């Protein structure tokens, strides 16, 4: 158990990103108030603040369909994080609503079992669009496509997620979904303060909406 938990040198904790389940169990045993930010674990009862990943990815995929794309791949290792899983589910939902196929060969891994990025491998049969789980991966996909002679978006459209710096330094600038990180931060701190004051959080799970951002990659 970490020293700061044993000695109770903090009054509350915010865990950001994917945390090992054993570590979360230790936090629960400590009795300290804590919140999860940008992830959840179905096996552990813990209050969390999340981005609306499923709806965001649904909107991105729906946009691609509305612009005439029909063969749409997803880039992301869905078992790596709960965020990627939810973004994949939004992608699948949009395809199913449009009666388009969800093809296993168009689910493209982007990281290994440790969560470390791996080189992207383009499928043998190329799609006409890639929904990427984050802007950094989308940036790498765009660069790979250009090296292979594809034009973005004329030949292949690419979308990111988060609206971080990769979306604007990309050439062409990237269509993405903006995560409202400021509101997520405000909400998770407010929720933790309520718990530290022995009040119940406003809700066990708070989902913060984002915004679709269209740029030149689609």
From TrEMBL:
One Pfam family this sequence matches: Peripla_BP_3
Keywords assigned by UniProt, alphabetized: DNA-binding, Transcription, Transcription regulation
Residues in Transcriptional regulator LacI/GalR-like sensor domain copies: 61-218
An MF annotation (GO) of this entry: transcription cis-regulatory region binding
InterPro entries associated with the record: LacI/GalR-like_sensor, Peripla_BP_I
Domain of life: Bacteria
Official protein name in the record: Substrate-binding domain-containing protein
Lineage: Bacteria, Bacillati, Bacillota, Clostridia, Eubacteriales
């Amino acid at each position: 158990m970490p020293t700061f938990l044993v000695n109770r040198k903090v009054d509350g904790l915010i865990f950001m990103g994917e945390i090992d389940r054993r570590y979360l169990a230790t936090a629960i045993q400590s009795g300290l108030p804590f919140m999860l930010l940008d992830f959840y674990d179905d096996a552990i009862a813990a209050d969390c603040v999340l981005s609306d990943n499923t709806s965001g990815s649904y909107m991105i995929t729906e946009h691609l369909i509305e612009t005439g794309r029909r063969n749409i791949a997803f880039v992301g290792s869905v078992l790596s994080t709960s965020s990627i899983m939810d973004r994949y589910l939004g992608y699948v939902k949009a395809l199913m609503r449009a009666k388009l196929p969800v093809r296993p060969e168009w689910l493209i891994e982007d990281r290994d079992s440790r969560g470390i990025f791996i080189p992207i491998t383009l499928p043998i049969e190329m799609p006409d669009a890639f929904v990427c789980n984050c802007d950094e991966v989308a940036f790498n996909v765009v660069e790979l496509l250009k090296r292979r002679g594809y034009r973005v978006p004329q030949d292949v459209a690419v979308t990111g997620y988060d609206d971080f710096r990769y979306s604007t330094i990309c050439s062409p600038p990237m269509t993405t979904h903006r995560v409202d990180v400021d509101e997520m931060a405000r909400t998770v701190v407010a929720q933790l303060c309520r718990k530290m004051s022995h009040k119940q959080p406003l809700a066990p799970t708070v989902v913060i909406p984002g915004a679709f951002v269209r740029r030149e990659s689609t």
